[in-house]
Specification:
Blueprint (H helix, E strand, L loop, with lengths): L4 E5 L5 E5 L17 E6 L9 E2 L10 E5 L12 E2 L10 E5 L14 E7 L10 E5 H4 L2 E7 L4 E6 L14 E5 L5 E6 L29 E5 L5 E5 L6 E5 L22
Antiparallel strand pairs: 1-2, 1-3, 3-5, 4-6, 7-8, 8-9, 10-11, 11-12, 12-13, 14-15, 15-16
Amino acid sequence: MAGIPVKATDPAGATATGTTSADGTVKLATTEPAGGKYRVEASIPASMPYLKPAPAGGGLSSLTAFADVSGGKKADLTMGLWNPADDCQDNPTLVTACQRNGIAPGIDPQAKSLIGFPLTARGTGSPPTALAARVDTGTVYGIAYRKPDKRIFSSAFAKRATAYGTGGSGAIYVTNPAIKTTLFTKVPVPGGTAHAMQTGFDLKFADVVGKRKASARCGSDQRGRRHAVRGEPGRPQALPLRRDRGRAEGELRDPGPRLPRGR
């Protein structure tokens, strides 16, 4: 990995610095101190905040290590950095939505709306873990996971005979598996067609699905930045979700025509 600053310091405080090249190596020109020992440190530059130190061991040193070159010895140190967003464990937890009946009778507010299960799960022997209930989110889709704080994002979804949650048609919900599910934000003007569950089994809403996507799909990139996608007729729009000064996390304002648009 290129661009990683490295510094060697001798017992007297003298230093030698360098930056890794394209092949990830750096050679430090030093004058041998008494004893021939150096403290060697690599640091994560401010331009790469998404990187984390790789676990030491198995041939990898930590980002702070000591080298002994006394008596003409040669010392090589191998340090590692990684981007957690690029990593996937052997048996990751998968998350999916359960879209529940919204036509009475048969409505169960506590029915699972978001569940998790291991990749290797098969059959019915190991029931999935309930992460959220219908009363928490209503019908959702567009699921995203943010690794740094282990939060799950899901968004309101337009589907006949399945109701929106308390946040309405533009809602994005956030689930912390260790705590609870709450409303994260609302996407501006996502479409206002209401359900009419007891009229022809919500028949009029069928015309909305696939034409005006009232759902707000939430995703995150490798640096942990979150985006929502608002679907309007022929004009999907990406909306960045960020913490602005004086505004709560997740609060988002429609940038209007400056948004990238595509068909």
